[in-house]
Structures are given as C-alpha cells and as structure tokens.
Amino acid sequence: VTITDDSTDDYQYEEVSADDDFSLQEDEDLPTALQTLQEQAEDAQILGSQSVLTPKKSVSEIPEAVDDFFCNFLVRLGMSRTLNCFQTEWYELIEKGVITVEDGGVVPAVYTHIQQLEAENMSLKKDLENYRLDV
Questions:
Q1: Residue 35: which pLDDT band, with cuts at 50, 70 and 90?
Q2: Lower Cβ count inside 10 Å, N or C end of the chain?
Q3: Where is the region Disordered (predicted)?
Q4: Which helix (H) or strand (E) holds 68?
C-alpha cells in the first residue's frame, strides 16, 4: 500500500518503526493507548527520581578538610571573631606560599562521626523535652 502526500497542510509526518516500544498495536483502542502512554511516563518519572534519591557517594563518606572542620567547629560554638582571625591568617599563609591547601590534610572519619552522633543526640534530647512538655 502506498500513501501519497496529497495534503496541503504544513505538518511534517514521521515514520514510526514497527519495533518501536511506543508504537501502538493494531487491536489497541484510544483509551488503552492513552493508559499505556501514561504508565510509561510514570515509569520514566519513577526511574528518574530513584537515580536522584540514591547518590553514588554519601556526604559523610567524603573526607573533610581540617580547615573546614575547624571553621565548622568555631561556627557551632558561635566564635565568629576567632573564625574571622583564623580564616584571615589561613588564607594569608596560603597566598604567601608558606602553606598549601594539601598541608591541612583531612580529618579522620571518627571525628566527623562523633560530630554526627552529637548532632543526633541533641536532636533526640529536644524531641524528648518536647514530648515531656506535651504529656
């Protein structure tokens, strides 16, 4: 069967291959086709969200630089003047070439883990206090 292009509209028609997963079957009606397309869109959305939810490397697995660890420590204690002095001296020494970023090294994972446990402990204490106030 040959179809000739006798139409006068400007629409560009494209050929759909027979082995295409999205092609319709001959016995399929419009509601079934729409449902199939909707299910395929939902599947694609689920697959896309799963790749976002499962990162390849957790933040806790990335080693933290010593200067970042120290800065975070000072921020947590509210020592902003000490933090400003440290950062000024740290970056001044790096700029002069006295030390390099690599000289600082990384913090052993146990210290980072202790910080995470302390944060979790504080959160649980707040939850317990809120529970006691509600009861």
A1: confident
A2: N
A3: 1-24
A4: helix 66-77
